[in-house]
Amino acid sequence: MKISNTILRLALLGALIFSDSAIPRVSSADCFFPPNGRPVTVLVQSCEAIDGHTNVDVLRYVGANTHFRELEKLYTGALVGEAHDTRWVYPSEEKDPCRKFAKGARVKMRAYLTCCDTGRWGKCVFGGRWLGDVDGKPINADQ
Known about the structure:
This protein is 24% helix and 24% strand.
C-alpha cells in the first residue's frame, strides 16, 4: 500500500507541476493600453465622412444615452479604415474631414483608446479607437 500511495502522490505532484507551468505568468486586464495621446502612424485604407446626428450605428447604440450631445460631436468627422478591419474615429467639424486621409497615405496622429469590454455603446460604437491631431486638443476616451 505504501508504494501505491507514493506512486500516486508522485503522479499528482508531476501533474500539478506540469499544469502550473502551462499557465502564463504574466497577464493583464482586458483594457490595459499604453497612455492615451501616444503618437501613431495610420496607413489609410478608407475614409468615410460621418455625422453623429444621422449615422445609423451611432443612433442605434448611443441615441438613448444621456450624454448624446457630447457623443454626437465625437462621432461627427471621419471614420478611417486601416488594415485588418481596424477603424478609427477622427472627430472634426471640417466640411471634408477625409481630406487628410487619402487612401494609401501614412498619417501621423495621436491615439486615444476606450475600454470596450462591455460592448458597443457610448464611445465603443466603432471599436473605441479615436484619432486626434498631433498638436490638437486631447480627446477624452473614458467611457
